[in-house]
Automatic annotation (TrEMBL):
Signal peptide: none annotated. Residues 5-160 form the MAM domain. Pfam families: MAM. Coiled coil: none annotated. This is MALR1 protein. It comes from Fregata magnificens (Magnificent frigatebird). The lineage of its organism: Eukaryota, Metazoa, Chordata, Craniata, Vertebrata. PROSITE patterns: MAM_2. One of its GO terms (cellular component) is membrane.
Length: 160
């Protein structure tokens, strides 16, 4: 159903993401949470929820992992679209692919903090002959005030 297809974080995580996969570094919040910068989601709504790295984070990175997806086929590649926000100074967001037979995560997309503190949108396409998981990793330099990485409205196409 549609809950598989879109994670907007309004009530919780969607079915493509497990609560267990939400590591302590990520926090589900909105612009009114009083947690510093990022005062609205990508639609400019201050009461809508998104995920961001917690400023209390002890380590500098946190990952968000999807459930296991089945192999893709020629007609149905897996397309994942998401919105992201990165602090100007020190934020990085990476998307990785972990195939079932491999221990390592292959980095398939990455962006760092030269962005001017604004929401952007990106789509990645995945082609995999075996079962796989997708991993979103956010990183900031800790001890810096008001630095964060956020993610919102992750949508998964039919091929995922």
């Amino acid at each position: 159903g549609s809950s598989w297809k879109k994670c907007d974080f309004e009530t919780d995580l969607c079915k493509a993401l497990h609560e267990l996969n939400l590591q302590p570094g990520w926090i589900r919040r909105n612009g009114r949470s009083g947690m510093g910068p990022l005062y609205s989601d990508h639609n400019g709504n201050d009461s809508a929820y998104f995920l961001s790295l917690s400023s209390e984070m002890q380590s500098s990175s946190a990952t968000l992992r999807t459930n296991v997806f089945l192999p893709t086929d020629e007609e149905h590649l897996c397309q994942i679209t998401f919105h992201y926000w990165i602090s100007q100074m020190s934020g990085t967001l990476m998307v990785g692919l972990q195939k079932h037979s491999e221990d390592t995560i292959t980095n398939i997309w990455q962006v760092s903090g030269e962005l001017q503190n604004q929401w952007k949108e990106n789509t990645i396409t995945i082609n995999s002959t075996q079962e796989y998981e997708v991993i979103f990793s956010g990183m900031v330099e800790t001890q810096k005030q008001n630095e964060t990485v956020a993610i919102d409205d992750i949508t998964f196409s039919e091929g995922c």
